[in-house]
Fold each of these.
Amino acid sequence: METLFKKKVLIIGATGGIGRELAKLIKSSQADLLLSGRNAAKLEEIAIELGINQEHIFTADITNPDQVQSMAEWSGNPDIIINVAGIGIIKPLEQLTYDDFNQSIDINLKGTFHILKSYLPGMKAVKQGLIINLPGVIGKVPMAGAAAYAASKYGLNGMLKSVREELKRTNIRITNLYLGGTDTAFWDQIDLNVQRDKFVLAKEAAKSIWFLCQQPVSGVVSEMVLQPFNHQAI
Ligand SMILES: NC(=O)c1ccc[n+]([C@@H]2O[C@H](COP(=O)([O-])OP(=O)(O)OC[C@H]3O[C@@H](n4cnc5c(N)ncnc54)[C@H](OP(=O)(O)O)[C@@H]3O)[C@@H](O)[C@H]2O)c1
């Protein structure tokens, strides 16, 4: 396993259920940890809880390319970027609004595009880096009610795999985690009859990302799948 000691690690979406648990684990590995989220109050609360300096947190909405670029100027070039920002709007097509669809694409797909545009030049200059994303199981298999979410996550999957093709002559690694149902606030607004008590725990999803961060640098873990026992869709 590669050590995270003093590695510069940026978590985008650190204020979410998975991001928060991940921040605790990466902090425990004595990395140079940087946290970003859209909600400034939540971000400050996490920083205080983990004993992270205010200079190590940055509020940014990833739908705004200028804010993402400012974040890149603030952070400099991280060794590892973990993008755990995203939303899930799950509704049948007849209930899905244009705004629901646009938000899903703007955050899950275009938000990641902005991150790649702002951070890849720095990684390319040093020809190394690791970017971990969460296209999720719905980035690979369909689900009723997931027209907007699947569109954003299938798009994300295709975009990341295409960018990977452009990076083969560098040591920049792109790792996709295909995660199934995980018990976080992500599900609070979703009107579906799901068994959250059978979901993957947020702290265990975070452990899988922590594991991915520590993989040897001579190869690439292109993807990993983690799903609840009762819903193994892949
Ligand atoms: N939970 C699951 O079952 C599951 C399964 C597969 C994949 N995933 C993926 O895992 C990721 C994290 O999910 P989670 O369960 O931790 O969800 P969560 O608890 O709802 O957290 C979502 C995170 O995304 C951030 N975010 C949302 N919109 C943003 C924006 N415009 N700009 C910047 N940050 C934004 C939120 O920031 P603020 O709170 O600061 O606004 C929050 O930190 C998502 O990409 C999701 O699609 C989740």
Amino acid sequence: MTGKYQRISLIFKTSRLTDNGDGINVSVEFHAAEYQLQMQCYSEAVRRMIPNISEVKATLQFLQPIPSLEYEYPSSMISEASSNQQIQAVMNRIGRCGSDPVSFAASTGKQCLRCTFHDLCPEGSAYLSNKT
Ligand code: SF4
């Protein structure tokens, strides 16, 4: 591939937003906070997959009730430093709970039915085989 990526936008489509009387912006902010770590992980993955990328943007695109409603994360929030700091903090919390963030037991259940990684997961594959 030739050329240089100047910028990548990450768009994550979500389900319906609801206005509980505080205005739709409150709902947008709530969901943005909920997805923050996930978007930081995506941002960091893009930076690692495309070395020397000059800019990464992370945008949530809400499909309902307003199809064009978007939330763009501040660049400071999805920066390499901020993303790595948050990811490391979660890994540390997992470690403090006594779990190994790299090697852990699979938790099978009905979620395996829609998991796109079941071909790579022996436990999930076994669970699904026993279901059929
Ligand atoms: S298939 Fe494996 S990775 Fe997917 S949900 Fe089930 S246990 Fe988890």
